[in-house]
Specification:
It is built from 6 helices and 16 strands. The protein has about 270 residues and is an alpha+beta fold. Strands 8, 9, 10, 11, 12, 13, 14, 15 and 16 form a 9-stranded antiparallel sheet that branches. It has a 5-stranded antiparallel sheet with strand order 1-2-3-7-6, covered by helices on one side.
């Protein structure tokens, strides 16, 4: 019966690490895949069972956020590797909240020392485009219209790293709301992880527009969405894969994080 049910589903889109299935006019099933990628998809592998771990992490996080009245597209768990969510028109932006200077931030700001801690979390926007290598966004405009000024994400901001100007995919009001929600999400998770003895260094979230026109946190939040470290500075996240660690080591860390996020239930 389950196989027959799957055959009847309409695939909306398949990405690098997940598949979106249409359930009805306003609901989708988001299914995680065992794939793991880096360098905008140029590096790719499969980790057996990662889809189950990733889905558990995402469901734990979304259940926690929904309990804190942070609006997301999440409805409920559906299977061990999928969940049901509101159908959304995705905005092609990654909203990154940083407590520490790591990753591409250091390439844009070489004057800042690695692991510098920001007193207040900073927020950066990146345009989702593999072709342009997910460029950094500077927003310009007003309430009537905003544009995104695009720069190479891994170079200091200058005329040499300028890529172009495009019309923004949301309004200034929506962008401000998304930034506010991203900050709240980060602070909520940071507090819990700190209480559990871990450091949330940064977090990437994405947003979608529901059929009612509301901007909500969408896509997934799993172990590929953040840098999560032990108090000794050991990565438990996708950074290990980026650095070339073996897949068994990477899987072990994902198992640990899946168990850690099970504790989010105690904070609901």
């Amino acid at each position: 019966m389950e196989e027959e049910k799957c055959k009847e589903k309409e695939k909306i889109v398949e990405g690098k690490t997940k598949i979106i299935w249409r359930v009805n006019a306003s609901t989708v099933e988001i299914e995680s895949k065992p794939d793991i990628t880096a360098r905008n998809g140029k590096k790719r592998d499969k980790i057996p069972g990662k889809e189950i771990l990733a889905n558990n992490i995402a469901c734990n996080v979304f259940e926690f956020l929904n309990s804190k009245r942070v609006k997301t597209h999440f409805i409920k768990r559906y299977s061990e590797k999928s969940f049901l969510a509101k159908l959304c028109e995705m905005v092609p932006v990654e909203v990154v909240v940083r407590r520490y200077a790591l990753g591409s931030y250091l390439k844009r700001h070489p004057e800042i020392p690695k692991f510098f801690r920001f007193k207040k979390p900073i927020v950066e926007l990146f345009y989702k485009s593999d072709k342009l290598r997910d460029p950094y966004i500077i927003t310009q405009g007003n309430q009537k219209r905003i544009d995104w000024i695009l720069y190479e994400a891994k170079e200091p901001l200058s005329t040499n790293s300028f890529l172009g100007r495009i019309s923004a995919s949301w309004s200034l009001k929506e962008e401000k709301l998304a930034i506010k929600k991203a900050k709240k999400t980060f602070i909520l998770l940071e507090r819990v992880f700190r209480d559990l003895g871990y450091i949330l260094a940064d977090l990437k979230v994405e947003f979608g527009r529901t059929t009612e026109g509301e901007i909500v946190i969408a896509d997934v939040i799993d172990n590929d969405s953040w840098r999560l470290l032990t108090e000794e500075g050991e990565h438990l996240d996708k950074q290990l894969y980026r650095e070339g660690k073996d897949l068994d080591t990477v899987r072990t860390k994902y198992e640990i994080v899946s168990q850690i996020t099970n504790s989010l239930k105690n904070y609901i």
